[in-house]
Design brief:
5 helices
């Protein structure tokens, strides 16, 4: 299991991004495990992303956005970023 980033966990931008991912995932009726499988991430890592504990790589943001049927720009915009 990935540990939270000691420097970035709780950063407001990461928290906002995680909340945007969670809200979209729930709106689509996906479980964390289902989304994680589609994206190719570990479920516990995705949970940490949704809690704002991980500084997410752009590659993973793009993968998440695609699975959530959004562009990366739209996902970031929905997070207020």
């Amino acid at each position: 299991m990935a540990k939270p980033s000691p420097t970035h966990a709780g950063n407001p931008a990461l928290v906002a991004l995680g909340e945007a991912i969670r809200q979209r995932r729930l709106k689509m009726g996906l479980s964390q495990e289902g989304l994680a499988l589609e994206v190719g991430l570990d479920r516990s890592y995705l949970g940490g992303v949704e809690r704002g504990e991980h500084n997410v790589a752009i590659v993973n943001i793009v993968k998440l956005a695609k699975c959530l049927k959004l562009s990366a720009a739209r996902l970031l915009d929905s997070a207020g970023l």
